[in-house]
Design goal:
By secondary structure, the protein is α/β, with parallel strands linked by helices. It has four domains: about 5-140, NusB-like (N-utilizing Substance Protein B Homolog, Chain A, Orthogonal Bundle); about 155-190, no CATH class; about 195-250, Alpha-Beta Plaits (2-Layer Sandwich); about 255-455, Vaccinia Virus protein VP39 (Rossmann fold), CATH 3.40.50.150. The chain has 20 helices and twelve strands. It has helices at about 5-10, 20-30, 35-45, 50-65, 70-80, 90-105, 110-125, 130-140, 155-160, 165-175, 180-190, 205-215, 245, 255-265, 280-290, 305-315, 360-365, 365-385, 405-415, 440-445, and strands spanning about 195-200, 220, 230, 250, 270-275, 295-300, 320-325, 340-345, 385-395, 420, 440, 450-455. Strands 5, 6, 7, 8, 9, 10, 11 and 12 form an eight-stranded mixed sheet that branches. The radius of gyration is 24 Å and the shape is globular. Mean pLDDT is about 95; it is low at about 5-15.
Length: about 450
């Protein structure tokens, strides 16, 4: 019996073996359109998976299998005589986790990887156990004889397979960049993102937060661009259980995302609208910048997200946020020219967050980007109606596709002579391009890929 199975048998509070949990999470991601992060957070919460090695293995299997899916599926296709894509979703994910352990790690014994993976197949899909066993053992025997796409003859296919990106996305990148830059972008998308925190200045300074983290044994350093940010530099598997987190001194938030509220630059006492607030990461940063003076209206059409926002506001001590359920695509007459600052962090393709959300690349199709652009234009029109004369409107997305960034803003400015684009003066100028847009990218600054435009409504 393996150590993992021994640990799984020590009482009812112990979770099933983590390899099985990884397969279950990956299958839910595919079948339900779920996201890896909340599913992993739920699996790792509490003490059901107490062993640090098991916790690390679960995280690596989920994110590693998602990041390398294209490469793993190519390998499976080489080793299976039938159509691997036609296999049941759960069986494909069993194979992916098994192949990942065999070919993408160097610390898991091959016999353990094969035996555990075949055991999972017997539990989930007994008829496929023999197939899984045969493919994994063939992978061990034939790994040096696998046939790969030729980079010189078929660069699009080669990049898609080697760097595990869908072919349509590689095709887009090659149309915009040369091959070297395209490969660099794909590599950056597959890199491990840092664990970034935003200091909640309603409760602590950055220095105080660093000291509090150090007291718990967590090493951290300040971020390069965000004056509110911290990067964790030591392993921290239970951050949400630490005193600095439970007392509301910190919040998990990428450095680029932290800069969006700084771009809005709200002042204490102002009226601010966050039109697509979601769970409130940027909303609560706005409250901190306003020193809990003034008012923030957080609108979102998903009540469950607003419930999470309210809970987080309580933890962080943000007292000026009022939540409102509503669709940002539908104008609200009482909002018209009512707000000093409006943030539209619009729904988008999310391609700037592939390091953190690798599952996105496998569910998007090319038409999704055009649909995002259509919605973004509508939302920006409605957001503009909420800005008082002289007020600010910030449009932001976590992607870099031209359709969702400069084209949306350019078309808006062409049709709205009462708004003008101004370059941000309160952010590092290295993040502002020649046209005055805010841009970040994983391959350039090690942050998520964001785009934002600062628009001001001129007085009549």
């Amino acid at each position: 019996m393996t150590d993992e199975k021994k640990r799984a048998g020590r009482g009812s509070r112990i979770a099933p073996p983590v390899r099985r949990i990884a397969v279950d999470i990956l299958t839910r991601i595919d079948a339900e359109g779920a996201y890896a992060e909340p599913l992993l957070d739920a699996a790792l919460s509490g003490d059901r998976i107490a062993n640090p090695r098991d916790r690390g293995l679960l995280t690596e299997l989920v994110y590693g299998s998602l990041r390398t899916r294209g490469r793993l599926d190519w390998i499976a296709g080489q080793l299976y005589r039938g159509d691997a894509a036609a296999l049941e979703t759960s069986v494909r994910n069993i194979l992916r986790t098994g192949l990942y352990q065999l070919l993408c790690t160097d610390r898991i014994p091959p016999f353990a990887a094969v035996n555990e993976t075949v055991g999972i197949a017997r539990d989930i899909s007994p008829a496929a156990a023999g197939l899984v066993n045969a493919i994994l053992r063939n992978a061990l025997r034939k790994k040096d004889a696998l046939i790969w796409p030729d980079m010189a003859k078929a660069p699009e296919k080669a990049i898609a397979v080697f760097h595990s990106h869908p072919p349509w996305l590689v095709r887009r990148l090659l149309a915009q960049f040369d091959m070297e830059e395209t490969i660099a972008i794909c590599r950056a998308n597959n890199s491990l993102p840092p664990l970034a925190l935003r200091v909640n200045t309603l409760k602590a300074s950055r220095e105080q937060a660093l000291t509090a983290l150090a007291r718990t044994g967590i090493a951290a350093e300040t971020t390069l661009f965000s004056v509110d940010g911290i990067i964790i530099t030591s392993p921290c598997p239970r951050l949400r259980e630490t005193t600095p987190y439970t007392e509301g001194l910190i919040r998990i938030q990428d450095e680029a995302s932290q800069l969006i509220a700084r771009l809005v630059a709200p002042k204490p006492g102002e009226k601010v609208l966050d039109l697509c607030a979601g769970v409130g990461g940027k909303t609560l940063h706005l409250a901190a910048l306003m020193e809990n003076r003034g008012g923030i209206t957080a609108l979102d059409r998903h009540p469950e997200r607003l419930a999470m926002l309210r809970e987080e506001a309580g933890r962080l001590g943000a007292a000026i946020v009022e939540t409102r359920t509503g669709d940002a695509a539908v104008p609200v007459e009482s909002f018209r020219k009512h707000f000093d600052r409006v943030l539209l962090d619009a729904p988008c393709s999310g391609l700037g967050t592939l390091r953190r959300n690798p599952e996105i690349r496998w569910r998007l199709v090319p038409g999704d980007i055009k649909e995002c652009m259509r919605i973004q234009k509508l939302l920006l029109q409605n957001a503009a109606e909420c800005v008082r004369p002289g007020g600010r409107l910030v449009y932001s997305v976590c992607t870099a596709t031209p359709e969702e960034t400069e084209i949306v803003v350019g078309d808006f400015l062409r049709d709205h002579g009462d708004f003008t684009l101004i370059p941000p003066a309160n952010l590092p100028q290295a993040l502002i391009d020649a046209r005055g847009y805010f841009r970040t990218a994983p391959r350039l600054q090690g942050m998520d890929g964001f785009f934002a435009a600062l628009l001001v409504r001129v007085y009549p």
